[in-house]
Amino acid sequence: MNNAHMKYWLVNALCGVVVLILLGGHMAGMHLDDLLALVVGSSTEPLEWAEVNVRGQSRLFTVSYVFLLGTALFHGLYGLHTILTERWSGRRAARFILFGCWSAGVILFLTGTIATVSFHLLTVTP
Amino acid sequence: MSASQPKQYVNQIGIIGWLKGGRHGFEGYLYLLHRISGLALLLFLSAHVFVTGSRLFGEAAWEQVMRLTHHPVVQLLEYLVYVAFVFHALNGVRLILIEFGLAVGRPERPVYPYKSSLNAQRKLMIGLMIITGLLIVLGGFELLRFPG
Questions:
Q1: What's the Rg (C-alpha) of chain B?
Q2: What is the DSSP letter of B24?
Q3: Dihedral sign from CA coordinates of B38, B44, B50, B52
Q4: Sequence-distant (≥ 6) Cβ neighbours of residue A67 within 8 angstroms
Q5: Which of B46, B56, B59 is the closest to A118 by Cβ?
Q6: In chain A, where does DSSP find H-type helix?
Q7: How far apart are CA B82 and CA B89, in angstroms?
Q8: A125 CB within 8 Å of a chain B CB
Q9: pLDDT tens-place string over residues A91-123
Q10: Cis before residue B147, ω within 30 degrees of 0?
């Protein structure tokens, strides 16, 4: 394993920790809200349109969504890349897989980021 | 082949190799589940980007998507995503701890009878899998409440 591979692996591991924290919070807040209410004492309906708008107005939520998307995509596509190159390890195949993973990552990241930032701008515009 | 080039080994087992725990025992199967849950989460994330993007088209579009998520089959799939996340996250914690040399015991000289570091980390694995199981059951109380 060369130096670049080790750096990618380390970034992947760090992304995993970030995703664990951010996605854990996201899952608890969005989908386990009633269980969370037992702990924190208050309950809202996070998927109601009004609540979606409140989060859309928040710069912190907008930035954290984009950050979560980026780290989750890197972590997920790094894993997919590892699995695929284990099966098809030839030089040409490896280059094709790397290109495919990066392309998918960039497309998904741009789609999610444009949607999130556009929604933020729509909700903060009077 | 020059001395500077590492020897390349051909992967002769391929993906079938995932199914064989081999000398890694139970942890070998966690490795299989880690990969399957990771692929499922990546697939879900890709779909999630487009589904949540519906909020850009206003309240009516959002409510329409939310109505779809109340379908029992979709709710069951959501629960499976939660199960995959909990397992992948806690097993990932175990893998990172082991990767950094934690929870595998102190290094020892290789004196026969050899001790396997698998046994040293097994308590951690069992503890984390118990927490995984508890969280999966707990999440089921909320995520599997089908309407009607």
A1: 21
A2: G
A3: negative
A4: A18, A22
A5: B56
A6: 3-31, 33-40, 49-57, 59-87, 91-124
A7: 10
A8: no
A9: 899 999 999 999 999 999 999 999 999 999 998
A10: no
Confidence category of residue B1, pLDDT binned at 50, 70, 90: very low
Question: Quick one: pLDDT at residue A1?
Answer: 58
Interface test with A, best of B42, B66, B134 (most A CBs within 10 A): B42
pLDDT per position as a tens digit, B36-70:
999 999 999 999 999 999 999 999 999 999 898 88
| A33 interaction partners in chain B (CB closer than 8 Å) | 142
Residues on chain B touching A108 (C-beta within 8 angstroms):
45-46, 49
How far apart CA B91 and CA B26 sit, in angstroms, is 13
Chain B positions in Cβ-Cβ contact with residue A43 (cut-off 8 Å)? none
CA-nearest residue of chain B to A33?
A: B142
pTM given for the model: 0.86
Residue A2 corresponds to which tokens in the numbers above? 């060369």
Query: What is the value of ipTM here, to two decimals?
Result: 0.90
Q: Does A41 touch chain B (CB under 8 A)?
A: no
List of E strands, chain B: none
> What string of DSSP letters covers A4-19?
HHHHHHHHHHHHHHHH
Residue A73 to residue B45, Cβ atoms within 8 A? yes
Nearest chain B residue to A27 by CA distance is: B82
Domain A3-122 has CATH 1.20.1300.10: yes
